[in-house]
Amino acid sequence: MRILDWKSLDEPGRRDALARPQFQVEEHLVRLAREVIARVRCEGDATVRLFTERFDRVWLESPAVTAQEFADARKALTKTQITALERAMANVERFHKAQIPEPYTLETEPGVRCEEIVRPIASVGLYVPAGTAPLPSTVTMLGVPSRLAGCPTRVLCTPPQPGGTAHPAVLVAAQLCGIDTVFKVGGAQAIAALAYGTESIPKVDKIFGPGNAYVTAAKQLVANDPAGAACDLPAGPSEVLVLADANARPEFVTADLLAQAEHDVLAQAVLVTDSEALAEEVASALPRQRDGLKRQSILAQSLATCRAIVVRDLDTGIDVVNAYAPEHLILQVPEPRRWLSKVQNAGSVFLGGWSPETLGDYCAGTNHVLPTYGYARVTSGVSVRDFVKIISVQEVSPAGLQALGLTALALAGLEGLDAHANAVARRLAALDQEDRDSPPALRKASVRRGARS
User: Fold this and answer.
1) pLDDT (0 to 100) of residue 29
2) Which of the residues 328, 415, 420, 434 is marked catalytic?
3) Per-residue model confidence (pLDDT) at position 435
4) DSSP β-ladder status, 153-157 and 123-127
5) Is 420 a residue of the active site?
6) Identical fold at 2-23+236-365 and 27-72+99-106+121-233?
7) Architecture of domain 27-72+99-106+121-233
8) DSSP letters of 267-322?
9) pLDDT at 446
């Protein structure tokens, strides 16, 4: 692990210190994804089968998961494993229930009523990768909020294993989330099938879920096509930044860096500290803790970009945090909540030495589908709100139109949009005509009724 002294770095050096591993969707992947999408869109299930055989080395006559496969998956998991999934889902549901948007209505002026109503997205596609590891936790993080949002159609796609089945933990998690429409399809062919539909896989309105650069390329392509499907978040390699002082336990900091680094060869783990001694202790502890772990080939590559940045004080450390905008931020400092108010850019924050990022990944209750690659500056992690639409409603009474109409006419004139003005002016004229045509007693009653409506 490289140890960098922040105060000795010039501006280019500081930018380099905060640079992420180069992640870009290479042109050959974009070309491949575009080809796959075009063929799936035209040829449907037959091409999905061909690409599944080509990329996953499995021939599937039908990609749909059967009831028997769901039953077999449940038998393949231990009671302890199922209980763990159930407990994690209960916490995720408890947390996400509080996010459900509520409709509301108010009068901005007498006779002018404005509302917001909430509607679920009609159909969503949930993509669960299974490349270097199965991700039943991703099923939870997408399945629970989509269920709470009330999305009528939820379709899950996940790549098949070598034997032609989906991973049992993914299937059990889907079933626990109330999802029974699952297809053993991965890669760009899954994204294409969800975006445009095939004979067996229904078209959806929005696609959620992480994936590699190939999947990311496909998601970007279908999201840019009005006939395709919207997508959730800009995706990049996973990352963690630990802000720690001399009081932090080096073994905890080391474990947190390794937990993130094992995700992917491009995953990034960064330590920011005001203690050079802590940085050196963590640097020496990394190889010792790494020796006992399984994913050695991934760690060997991801730890090549691991670094410790030594700052003058924790205030400077917070500045580094906000400049980097990490997906995961761990505050291993005294009174971490005191520093939380200074955090402006982060996907998810873990307060104190007893809050490992692992719990957020699996079972604390927050969502682990988060913005990476600096997007935490401008966007948030997945929530129930991503699975619904907010629709505004306006209702204006005759009295409200009379009160507010002249304001609208003035603003339409300011913008030079006379058709806008015409839509208001004609109504005001009609109200004036009705008023002139009414007997005096009815005229007064009409104004009173309009004010109340």
Assistant:
1) 84
2) 328
3) 84
4) parallel
5) no
6) yes
7) 3-Layer(aba) Sandwich (3.40)
8) -EEEEEES-HHHHHHHHHHHHHHHTT-S-HHHHHHHGGG-EEEE-SSHHHHHHHHH
9) 53
Separation between Cα atoms, residue 259 and residue 253, nearest integer Å: 10
Give the C-alpha separation, 341 to 88, whole Å. Answer: 28
pLDDT number for residue 21 = 77
| Residue of 327, 335, 395, 420 marked active site | 327
In angstroms, the Cα distances linking 305 to 26, 43, 339, 406 are 20, 43, 27, 63
Task: Report the sign of the C-alpha dihedral through residues 201, 205, 211, 213, in that order.
Answer: positive
pLDDT averaged per 10 residues in sequence order, the chain, 453 residues: 96 94 74 95 96 94 96 97 98 98 97 98 96 87 98 97 94 97 96 98 96 88 96 87 97 97 92 98 96 94 95 98 97 96 97 97 96 93 97 97 97 97 97 84 53 44
> What's the token pair of residue 149?
């949002």
* Element at 332 (helix H, strand E): strand 328-332
Phi, psi angles (nearest 5°) of residue 72: -65, -35
Residue type, 84: A
Q: Is 327 a catalytic residue?
A: yes
pTM to 2 decimal places: 0.91
Locate the domains of the chain by residue range. 2-23+236-365, 27-72+99-106+121-233, 397-452
Q: Which fold has domain 2-23+236-365?
A: Rossmann fold (3.40.50)
Give me the pLDDT at residue 368, please: 95
The closest alpha carbon to 60, from 68, 69, 50, belongs to 50
Q: Which amino acid is at 219?
A: K
pLDDT of residue 453: 41
